[in-house]
Design a protein that fits this description.
The structure is a homodimer. The first copy, chain A, is an alpha/beta fold. In chain A, β4 and β5 form a beta hairpin. In chain A, α6 packs parallel to α8.
């Protein structure tokens, strides 16, 4: 009871700054000014930063010029330098504001990971140095996106992993909240570039945000949302230099009237199909184990019932993974005696997300009807309790999102 | 006796690649090919790399845009990323050659340092991971220029510190030799761009190289030479992609006929004078302690006898340090009751170096005469046992070096 009271009394906040908001020295200076202002409201602040602008892409491109498929260990070592540049620069900018600050790599911050390189998971956080800095009224500036194994090998947490660093630190430090500063000022009912009527949500539940994050709403890393849910960390998604409150991701969202919370779209996606495979148990396991061993993240899997003992199986991967995935699938197809494989990149995934869908008869059907009314063909369908996703032709994506936003009356709620 | 025999049997070599030879991915690929070829001659190779091209300058410039005088700790964190980019890229390039390799930061390589940030010194090397890699026939690629304190704070070893990393690793691993690959193909009697007749030396002693290195011959970091001398590590200075043997820095150089080994020149130098200071004990200590505390490396110090109880004291610093040093000296001057200070950047240091100078009457005078014959005024003089250095006007530097090269007959020996 005492421990609980103490936790909820915590006056520590985590602020994560990423993407374009840390792209230049002058923006880092503005962030330092912002931190200086926010500081008075908190007993302790911990900052997490991403790589500056397109540094990560530049580093990846250097690696590509040397090796088409570089080793995960070496790639992690290379990519971690991106955040290791931002962190000391922001610490320097804080010093210029008269604030004591020290930069910490993931290793120095005590972030231990397990699992494969490039997609490592945080196993444990021993925040000795962070606590010691906070005890001295200094602000720790932690390089996001990275950790280290017990053998001190550098690992990275996958794209967008700085969000994960921030929320995991919030959990480890029992922080009051975690603030994710980004280019957008919150979570919207749809991408405002596609749907001008899209509204910013004041609050969204972890579960709903998780579906939106997984489905390419692009605002937050899904694993960060998961950790937030597990440890019940309120997460704010806000614009770095904007004035709005942003969107609060939290557990306690009760909105009866609301059936659907947002429409997500994803176009950097490729569709793969293996067809005419003799049906037998363990088929899917064989195929997806082979892909998993090569570190390929498979997204949406659709398998229909077999016809004449032959089975077709489709799934999507990130477009950038297709070159890796296709030859692997060809090999599996030949091993399994399938007729052939097929792939396409001109597809888009459109999803409708909302807890309200759970107990709302016809909520799924609204989506299919809306798409049919627009003459848009549905290639694949996959559903969860609170989400329905359709794969359609990429050129129709924009039209589909706008039609769905209207069909679910998201602009009026 | 057994241990000694074992040491001399070592078939490990250290190869250090720096500067422009690691500037691009294609050059890293060529280095990987070179290592693949050299590999057969050795039982174990350890590679040390510098930052790519002008990365270090770019990082410094980022810091300058945020803070005019950034904290040493944060600057070390920032600058170390330069080498941390090269190392994994070279490891990837080695993988492409079918060679097992792992990159290691200074921390991972077990390089522990003490002393101030930006100018840390190697206290100890615990090469556990390097030895484990060598035991598995893998090539460790170590990020040069850096280490870590016992508290795991990142430190750097000062400009050119990758040479120090390489020679210190050679000592720790009892390597047969250390090879420093660079843009030039060896140590010359003078800068060939200034003196076309300059000759490459086949061998040079540690002591002579130390004077040349300190005096801006620019080929090697002086601390690396010192460590080489202490542990008697043969050091080769060679061109990365050239075919010549280069210059061997070693203990056993016996060349009776040779009186002077080379002429060094340095133009990125500033001269500072504090004049009219009431003479009393501890004067120099007061001034240079103040500069030392701010991390300013003072180079050549000249203090003449006092006249009328008043003393003038001159010294040189790197041109880039002048902006820091001048206000500090002004403060010290006012504290000590001096008349004023003076500084100039249009000066050059010209040095004549060679063990032969020790017991050669008139060897110093040859320098002064040669400069006088050219009508070049000498502003400051400083000598060591094997070196004489004059500060002159920068515009006369080229003329002075050519005249000295001729006066000491370096082109004919």
């Amino acid at each position: 009871m005492t421990a609980l009271a103490k936790d909820s009394d915590s006056r520590i906040t985590i602020q994560k700054f990423g993407g374009s908001s840390v792209a230049t020295p002058s923006r880092l200076k503005r962030i330092a000014q912002k931190i200086a202002q926010d500081r008075e409201r908190w007993d302790g602040m911990v900052i997490v930063v991403s790589a500056m602008g397109n540094t990560t892409d530049q580093l990846l491109s250097l690696a590509q010029r040397i090796a088409p498929a570089p080793s995960g260990r070496e790639l992690d070592m290379l990519l971690s330098t991106g955040e290791n540049i931002t962190a000391p620069l922001l610490a320097m900018a804080l010093h210029e504001q008269g604030i004591d600050a020290i930069s910490l790599t993931g290793l120095q911050a005590g972030i231990t990971t397990h699992g494969p390189h490039r997609h490592a998971r945080i196993a444990d956080i021993t925040p000795t140095r962070i606590l010691s800095a906070l005890g001295q009224q200094a602000i720790p500036v932690v390089a996001g996106f990275q950790g280290a194994t017990k053998e001190l090998d550098i690992t990275t947490l996958g794209r967008g992993g700085s969000d994960t660093t921030a929320v995991a630190l919030a959990a480890a430090l029992k922080a009051r909240q975690c603030e994710i500063y980004t280019d957008v000022d919150g979570v919207y009912t749809a991408d405002p570039r596609t749907v001008p009527e899209a509204r910013r949500l004041m609050t969204i539940s972890y579960t709903e945000m998780l579906e939106l994050a997984t489905l390419g709403a692009g605002v937050m890393h899904p694993r960060a949302v998961e950790i937030g849910e597990t440890y019940n960390i309120p997460i704010w998604v806000r614009s770095t230099f904007g004035k709005d409150d942003g969107t609060l991701i939290t557990r306690s969202v009760v909105e009866d009237r609301q059936r659907v919370r947002g429409i997500a779209q994803e176009t950097n996606v490729a569709k793969l199909t293996v067809y005419g495979v003799p049906d037998r148990p363990g088929l899917a396991a064989t195929i997806f184990e082979a892909l998993g061993e090569q570190g390929i993240n498979v997204d949406m899997i659709v398998q229909n019932i077999a016809r004449n003992g032959l089975m077709d199986l489709s799934f999507t991967v990130a477009e950038s993974e297709l070159a890796h995935a296709r030859p692997l699938l060809e090999k599996q197809c030949s091993i399994l005696g399938g007729k052939g494989i097929d792939s396409a990149t001109d597809v888009a995934k459109i999803s409708v997300v909302g807890t309200g869908m759970m107990h709302t008869p016809g909520a799924f059907a609204t989506m299919f009807r809306a798409l049919a009314n627009e003459g848009i063909n549905i290639q694949m369908i996959s559903t969860s309790e609170i989400r329905v996703t359709c794969v359609i032709d990429e050129p129709s994506a924009r039209q589909a999102v706008r039609a769905l936003h209207k069909a679910y009356e998201l602009e009026t709620l």
